[in-house]
Structure formats: C-alpha cells, structure tokens
Design goal:
By secondary structure, this protein is mainly α. It has one domain. Helices cover 79% and strands 0% of the residues. It has four helices and no strands.
C-alpha cells in the first residue's frame, strides 16, 4: 500500500495534470496553428482516437520520467531536465521535419515549463521525498 501511495499515485496524478494541461494547450492554443500548418502543406492533421490515446500514453510516460528524475534531482533540476527532454526535443524534431507551426514554441515554452514544474511538484510532494540540503 505504501508503494502505491508513494509511487503509483504521484505518477498517476502528475499524468492526469500533464494530460489536462496538454489538452487545454492543444484546444486553445496549438490546434488552430497545427491545422493551418498542415493545410498549407496539403495534408490533413491526424485526429483519430488512436492519435489521442497515443498522446495520453505520452503524458503518462512524461509523468513517469519526471517521477524518476525527481528521486535524484531537486525541483528546478527535474523541471528543466524533463522539460528539455520531453518538450524541447519534441519541438526540435518537429521543426526538423518541417511540421512545427510558427509561433508555437514562443507560446508553448512558458506553458510547457509550468506543466513540467507542477508535475515535478506533484511527484515530489506526493512521494514525500526528503531531499538533503546539498541537492537544493
């Protein structure tokens, strides 16, 4: 029961937060940019249920990695490391493929950092991680 409370629950709650954050960012910020970007390329943006399920799985993988990082690093280190590995690298790959809409990075960066920060905070607080002073 203790394992469930200190490991599974923080990952689950952080995953819920990430998926909620990503859904809101998608619907109110990114979706119009992506639709326009794909339309200008002559392709249709894939929006099938399977695509949404894959993004939801991605959110829980992101939460799991944040939890793992939070065991070793402090709040800020975990926030920036996880943000860089999951969002900045994703955007770099999309940009390299010519799929990244203009303006998305400028708007998405602060929101992505907030998302990673809150997910990290959830993981650290829910698992009651005791950090020694050398890590803070």
């Amino acid at each position: 029961m203790n394992y469930l409370k200190k490991t599974i629950l923080p990952i689950f709650l952080a995953g819920i937060w990430i998926n909620l954050s990503e859904t809101l960012r998608w619907e109110f910020l990114a979706k119009p940019l992506w639709i326009e970007q794909h339309k200008s390329m002559g392709i249709v943006l894939p929006q099938e249920p399977v695509n949404m399920i894959i993004w939801m799985i991605w959110g829980f993988i992101f939460a799991t990695v944040i939890f793992i990082f939070s065991r070793k690093f402090n709040l800020w280190q975990t926030t920036f490391l996880s943000w860089f590995l999951f969002l900045a690298v994703l955007w770099l790959v999309l940009w390299n493929l010519g799929l990244l809409p203009d303006g998305l990075v400028q708007l998405g960066t602060p929101l992505g950092l907030i998302e990673a920060f809150i997910a990290t905070w959830i993981c650290q607080k829910m698992s009651q991680r005791k950090m020694d002073q050398s890590h803070d």
